[in-house]
């Protein structure tokens, strides 16, 4: 399979086939991020298509500095952020269901995430996190990015990413054990 750089060179020369190969090569990765971020399969499908349309429109601006996959993921991150700011999302106003308690004898949320135990409950708990914490956790644990890569993609400092991860994981741990993160935070 040709590298991203080779495909980009062909695309710049007008190759439609190279564009199709590039999209197929990265589609699952981008869809996985968008789906985890939104939690709605059909909406994620549509939004992923929109991410690739944006990629096609702005591919001439890609300077081939750094990893193409990260540049594409940055487009997906920004597109999801735009969606959450949109009137469509605000009008939707969906209420999410309460999270049922999960017992983790070791009390280790890292194990819950890495082994994807009870993934539906983790997914439901993730919906209760602030968007910036959810985004950091998805990029770290589901997209396997390093702190520095997350900072670059989200236009944040590394210390900010670390803080968002720590706070988000702490909230998840509390929710998955059956508590209310806000109530426990107030007691401290």
From TrEMBL:
Describe the family membership recorded for this protein in Swiss-Prot or TrEMBL.
Belongs to the sigma-70 factor family. ECF subfamily.
Q: Name one GO biological process term.
A: DNA-templated transcription initiation
Q: What is the lineage of its organism?
A: Bacteria, Bacillati, Bacillota, Bacilli, Bacillales
Q: Which residue numbers delimit the RNA polymerase sigma factor 70 region 4 type domain?
A: 120-172
Any GO MF annotation of the entry: DNA binding
- Identify one Pfam family in the record: Sigma70_r4_2
Spell out the Gene3D superfamilies in the cross-references: 1.10.1740.10, Winged helix-like DNA-binding domain superfamily/Winged helix DNA-binding domain
Q: Which organism is it from?
A: Evansella cellulosilytica (strain ATCC 21833 / DSM 2522 / FERM P-1141 / JCM 9156 / N-4) (Bacillus cellulosilyticus)
Which superkingdom heads the taxonomic lineage of this protein's source?
Bacteria
Domain RNA polymerase sigma-70 region: residue ranges: 22-87
The UniProt keyword set, sorted, is: DNA-binding, Sigma factor, Transcription, Transcription regulation
Any idea what this protein is called? RNA polymerase, sigma-24 subunit, ECF subfamily
Which InterPro entries does the UniProt record give? RNA_pol_sigma-70-like, RNA_pol_sigma-70_dom, RNA_pol_sigma70_r2, RNA_pol_sigma70_r4_t2, RNA_pol_sigma_r2, RNA_pol_sigma_r3/r4-like, WH-like_DNA-bd_sf
